[in-house]
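S1.2 Input.
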Amino acid sequence: MPEVQHPTDFQRVPTGVVVGTEAVPDSAIPATMMLVEAVDGAYIPLALRLPQGKGPFPIVLFGSGNGGGGFELLRFFNNQRSWTQERFLEAGYAVAWLRYRAEVDYAYDRIGKLVIDGRQTRQLLNRGPMEYEDAIAIAEYLKTLPEIDGDRIGWMGSSHAGEMVFKISSEYNGFRAMIASEPASHEFLRLRPDETAQINPETGLLNVEKMLMREPEKVRARITEDVARARVAPIQTPILVQGRDTDELQGVFRVSYDLLHEMGKDAEWATYDHHLHGFVFPARDENGDYIPNELAQQSVRDSLAFFAKHFGR
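S1.3 Output.
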């Protein structure tokens, strides 16, 4: 009997499955809820929205904070944090909230790059995929859709999703432009925490929620300079780094930009005196209304201008 030939999974292009369509409050544009295949065959949730008109459309992917949460968290973002997406839709962009795996504490620093090989026609990996590699898989899948202009894919991430900008762009050139808003990039920079970071005695994991790193000079003295520069060196993607004047990690945000600038990368810096972390994604108030203040609105106008410049719009 002839041997059965199986497809070589480790060489495949990511695929996607449409789960359903859901309305977004106060918007005529619904969200298509999808599952997109990650590099290891697991499926990652995505909420895709297309503007009015005829495609293919440029697209900006949106990420906020750490990973996990699945469809319920996507619904929360669609229902409670969609003001910024509406501005992009009005400007003719497709948009998508996405989820990704939860951050594995300092795994990026300990384990190194993902290596994909095959065994018995299936995959063999040197480690499990991480959250930023889910974002890369989603970008690669979106490039296969006729509604999407695969040459004009952007990323706008806040907090941990801002740090993901650096992890992604250090290894992958498939995004046309990216925004790192308040990027918590202490791991990418291999920052040595001070006494303001505590070990959680219940888990043994480092808690950096209250770490004070406001001053760029303090941060610069605590990063591992050679490692950080080696990670920045391959970056080719234009990046806008957005800071927040009073944030506990403002020094981290600024040093992240400074390294890009010093190494001749296409980078821009803007900072805002806003009172809320994650201000680029305004939330509904207690009455269910979006009332973003002028600084939040300005940050989104600046973001749209940045993408327009790099997308040729």
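S1.4 Remarks. The chain has one domain: 9-311.
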